[in-house]
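Annex B. Sample input.
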Amino acid sequence: MESNQKNQLISSWLSFTHVQMKVTDELESILQQNHQLSLKEFYVLLFLSETPEKKLKLQQLQSMVGLSQSAMSRLVSRFEAKGCGALKRHICVDDRRAIYTSLTNEGEEQLKKALGTINETLANAFSREDIQKELQGLINQIKR
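Annex B, continued. Sample output.
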């Protein structure tokens, strides 16, 4: 692969991550302001809501959210410490070493409110001229 081509690939990757980081920072900020949630906490609520029984083993959840076992455990503990009742922990009856986390009715309500904020923030972000220009530039770089 030519050096110029490699540089374009790196440039495309950096442009992509720049857009992603800008939008992630906006989501993190607005979730904290409006719902006292981090983006990772939002992801936990979302992923739990998408399962048929609204519960997952902590191990499954940690890989979906992209956290270590200890970080996931701390995140769930913080949720519990908030006293909002969004999550509930259960010991697995089949494997006493495994711990399930389930979404409660309060958690579903919190998720519904946060989803509105997320969707509005994403719609605003992707309609902004600066983001559109960066994305269009990225598309143009990839097409070359």
